[in-house]
Amino acid sequence: MLEDRIVRWIMVVSGILTCTMLYPVVSPHEALLKNFGTTYTGPSVEVVVRNWGALIVISGLFVIYAASRPALRAAALLVSGTGEVVFIALTLLYARPLPDGPLGVAVAVDSVIVVLYALCLASRRRAA
């Protein structure tokens, strides 16, 4: 069983890492180029990419906030973890060849985060 302070640290650190996705909000074309090796143009891209980045940052902020509020932890871990799993699955299904560079790093880091979140949730269930 993970101690409460370890769960808090996992949540704070992973939340901060998740908040690094503020970059697409500020610079959508550069973020697409850096993360995916391509970019698109047009007003729709501006909106979609900025919104995508903002939603990820909101998820990270929720995890950070919930770290010090035990009643919210499970919800934050489930919401954020589900988003991470969907990203990993979509990347592995549709990115051919398999990603390397920034996208591959993101898949690897997100995979570690998903495992840590699962351990946090399992620890919470055992403690109850």
How would you characterize this protein structure?
The protein is 83% helix and 0% strand. The protein has 128 residues and is mainly alpha-helical. The mean pLDDT is 92.
Ordered list of secondary-structure elements with their pairings:
Elements: H1 4-19, H2 23-26, H3 28-36, H4 43-67, H5 70-94, H6 101-127
Count of separate DSSP helical elements: 6
Decide which structural class fits the backbone. mainly alpha
Mean pLDDT: 92
Total beta strands: 0
β content, as a range? under 5%
Large-scale geometry: elongated
Order of helices and strands: HHHHHH
Radius of gyration: 16 Å
Ends distance: 11 Å
Instruction: Flag low-confidence runs.
Output: none
The major sheet is characterized as: none
